[in-house]
Each structure stands twice: as structure tokens, then as C-alpha cells.
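Researcher: We're teaching a course module on how sequence relates to structure. For the next exercise, students receive a sequence and then see the predicted structure as C-alpha cells, so they can try to spot secondary structure elements on their own. Here is the exercise chain.
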Amino acid sequence: MQILTAQELHNLAMNIVGEKLKKMGYEFQAINSTLKRHPQFVLFKKGSPTIFVLVKASNNMQSPNDYDVLWMETFKNHAKKQNAKVWFAGVGIANSESVENPVFKDQPYYVAFDDFIKILE
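Model: And here is the predicted structure for the students to work with:
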């Protein structure tokens, strides 16, 4: 069995978030799936301001929404200059047999993702 790399976990999290955004009626103006490059999604909806969505995959199922507060302040300043909103999507992904085990390719996994944290409205 092959363990998912950090980039593969990130891509999985982005797919989960992307599906939710599509269901919410958003169009993707830009998508960046490179690990540690932000934002991952730039959203467009007619009549609404631009939204930057930051996606973070985590194996922390209890609190996948934890993020670096100091870094987020810097990003918020960037977004303000662009007149954009900032949403954060923390996605917990864990092995379905044991959260202690890594996530394997083509094996079942749990997902903890409820909703977006609206950092800057």
C-alpha cells in the first residue's frame, strides 16, 4: 500500500472543497493546487466581491480549522488591497481504520469538513 504524499492529501482536500464551492454556485476564476501557495481558489459570483479560499489538509480530525494566525493577518492585508474576502477551509483527512495510520492510496478515509471560516468579510 502506498501512503499519500502531502501534495496528494492537499489535492484531495482541494477536490472536496471545490465540489462544495460548485454546489454553492461559485465559478473558479483561478485555481492553484501547489502546496503552500495561496490562495488555492479565487472565486467569482456575479454581483459579489472576489473571494480568496485557502485550503489546508490536516490529519487533525478534532480541529482541522487550526491555522497560523500571524500568517493569516499578512494574507488578510493582501486581500484587503484586492478588495477580496478571505475564506478558510480546514479539511481533516484520516485513515478510516485508525487515525494513527497514514492515509493510503485507494483505501477508505474519513473527512472532517463542515464549512468555511470567513476570515475577512
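Model: If you want an answer key for the exercise: The mean pLDDT is 94. The chain has one domain: 6-120.
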